[in-house]
Prior knowledge:
The chain has helices at residues 41-51, 75-81, 89-98, 112-126, 128-131, 137-155; strands at residues 26-32, 52-65, 101-108, 159-168. The chain is of the alpha+beta class. It has a domain at 6-110 and 157-168: Vaccinia Virus protein VP39 (Rossmann fold). Helix 4 packs antiparallel against helix 6.
Amino acid sequence: KEQGLDHLIDVEQGNFEDLPYEDNSYDIVWCQDSILHSGNKELVFKEVARVLKPGGHFIFTDPMQADDCPEGVLGPVLKQIHLDSMGSVEKYRKMANDLGMDEIETIEQAALLPRHYGRVLEELKKNENMLQDKVSQEYIDHMKEGLGHWVEKGNNGYLNWGILHFKLQ
């Protein structure tokens, strides 16, 4: 709005597994740190490919598992987000490729993930007394434990975060 460009952009919210939009209706689909929450990531990619115009761009960020993450290591993290698996750069590349999307650029920033969750954990601990009036101690303890798992697994190289950019053919 400040730059006078608000007439060029529509920000929309919806269920990314069932987008309520016409086929071939968007030039760009942007998704920020949310695909990990889908239990059917392939469906998310199919929906994006459906609503993108030919030549359209799919740009997203997402917390992911590392491509070489050993089986079973992320159990505590997956339990925290109530899922059985996470995406990875290689999994997302394959999904995009299978739907006729070309990779434009991928920027992996794995070190940012444990740093971010570490800061969230610090702030949670620092503000714990204030939060006790708003949420239960059980919730606070659960969050501290969960954030600790994200930090640990990230520092051990089992998690990744990145910006992925694909273009529909």
